[in-house]
Every structure is written in C-alpha cells, then in structure tokens.
Design brief:
Order of helices and strands: HHEHEEEHEEEHEEEH
Largest sheet: 5 strands, mixed
Radius of gyration: 28 Å
Number of helices: 6
C-alpha cells in the first residue's frame, strides 16, 4: 500500500517542482533567451489628428485687444477648465474667428502651423499651439484597471503600466494586447512583453485612447507565486503523506 501511495504522490511533487513562477516566465527585458521573439526596431511615429478628436488651442500675440477677444470666446463655467473644439467628419476644425481649417491626418506640430497661418491673416504675430484635450489611455486585466493621463510625449509601455501597478504573476506575459484606434478601425497589437527587444519596437510607445489588456495566464491556477509558497505546499503534502502512512500501519 505504501508503494502505491508513493507512486501517487510522486507526480504531484514533480508538478509542484515545475509550477513556480521564475524569471524566464515573468522577467522583463530578458536577453539571450532564444525562446523569446526578437522584435525589430521601429522609429517613433507622431500621433496624427483624427476625426472627432477634441482639440485645445492656445494663441499668443502682442495685440492685447485680440487676445481679450480670444479669451472671451473661450469663457466657460467654473466647473470646466478649458474649451475644446471637435474635428468635424470632413477633417476640418472651426476656431474663434477662423473656420474650416483642415487638420485631420496632420501631426500637432503640422496642425499648429496650419492654424497659425490662418490666424496670421488677421494678426501678423500670432503664435498657435494645439494639443489634444483628453490624452488618456486605459489599462484592464492583470495589471489593475483604470484610465490614466498621458503626461508626457513618447510615453512608454513600461511607464504606462507603472501607473496602474506591476503586472500580476497571474498575467499572461506572452500575450499582452494593445487595442489602438486607427482610420481603418480598431487595430489589435499582440506581443510578448518579456524580451529586451520590445524597447523601441512598434509596441513600445503608448498613444492617446490606447487600451492595454493583460489577460490571465491559463496555467496560473497550477502555479505558486514564490518558493515560500512552494515549500509550504511541499511540507503540507509530506505531512499528509506521513499521516496517511501512519494510519495505514
């Protein structure tokens, strides 16, 4: 009987030995791991304005009268902090004193120059700066959930995830997804976050309205998070084994 019990417990112990989370399964920025994909380097591409984007603009000029007119056109209630202007379906935007400026498909630098050119037809020393009203991204899944602000240009994937918290051990590091809105519809980018080659790849930077999704690893149910938990399971299993053998005697 003792022999049969040992045979039953041996596979369980082997399973436990192979079920701990390790650096290769959850470590970031791994090098020299030939089992991981190698991603090509890709230059950062500036965000391009899309239809329905909400745009905020700031105009500066030495003409105080014109400046006051702009400010009066942007007056809002005390519950709001700024006025935004939507990009119309035809790709144009209407701003105070200037209408129908085509900016869809342009970067913010290019759009600022286009808008500034129109304003300088009215006031020669006008300087214009455009930005997106709500530059946010969303995180869901095994790294917390929430909507966060893009607080800087070229926000990286790791900086974005640090705002929501570290990826849980139960997350699937092999299949992280980013849902990104494009002119052709929603694009799903799926990648392994572990290799060091993720840096400066096409998956590295976060854009406005991105959704980062980290699904639960299907094998996480059978794994333990650290060796302390592993040793606890082993000791409990051995205790059960010895207790069973004692009563069999």
């Amino acid at each position: 009987m003792r022999q049969y019990i040992l045979i039953l417990f041996l596979p369980a112990i082997i399973l436990l030995l192979s079920s701990c989370y390790g650096y290769r399964s959850t470590g970031l920025l791994q090098v020299n791991n030939h089992k991981l994909p190698e991603y090509e380097q890709s230059a950062y591409v500036d965000y391009k304005i899309r239809v329905n984007d909400e745009i905020v603009f700031r105009l500066t000029t030495s003409d105080e009268t014109f400046s006051k007119l702009i400010v009066s056109n942007q007056s809002v209630s005390s519950t709001q902090s700024m006025v935004s202007y939507r990009v119309f379906p035809d790709g144009t935007i209407d701003l105070p004193f200037v209408n129908g400026i085509p900016i869809a498909g342009l970067t913010f630098n290019e759009a600022s120059i286009a808008v500034e050119k129109r304003f300088r037809e009215i006031i020669p020393d006008a300087t214009v700066k455009l930005t997106l009203a709500n530059k946010t991204f969303t995180v869901i899944g095994e790294s917390g959930s929430g909507v966060y602000s893009i607080y800087k240009d070229k926000l990286t994937l790791f900086q974005a995830l640090s705002l929501s918290g570290d990826i849980n051990y139960t997350g699937d590091f092999k299949k992280v997804r980013i849902l990104r809105e494009t002119d052709q519809g929603t694009r799903v980018l799926s990648f392994d976050i572990r290799p060091a080659s993720i840096v400066n790849s096409k998956y590295y930077y976060i854009y406005p309205n991105d959704i980062i999704y980290i699904q639960t690893d299907s094998s996480s149910f059978y794994k333990v998070s650290n060796y302390s938990s592993f040793l606890s399971l082993i000791s409990s299993s051995l205790s059960l084994l010895f207790t069973t053998l004692y009563f069999i005697k």
